[in-house]
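Same chain as my last thread, 128 residues:
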Amino acid sequence: MVDSLGDLVVDEGELDQGLLTSVLTPYVRIAKQTGRPVFTAGYSPLSESDKILVYLLARKAAVRLGLLGDGEEASPKEISTETGVKYGTVKPTVVELAERGLLASRDGRYQVPNHAVFRVKGRFTLSP
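reply #2:
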């Protein structure tokens, strides 16, 4: 419960780390040396769009942990290279995810905005 207006003030970049951890744990770990995602066996059966979301959330987590200095955004080419999802699939998929509000785009690079993490978690909660 919020006791005062001061309790409403937060850092704009703040994200519930527990929420991010709960979404990512079944699918990915983050390399301590590079900040790059290390996918687990649970990642393989995901749909192409969910693989992209997991990858971008892993980048978000790596940035929050101070392991990745070049930002959480990634280009479709980077996404394809890192996830194994074909570039011809990545490009239309990130556009569609952005249209649905699950991704934000800036200068041709994509990220999961903080407000969308809850909706992304819902996608995985409904998955087997």
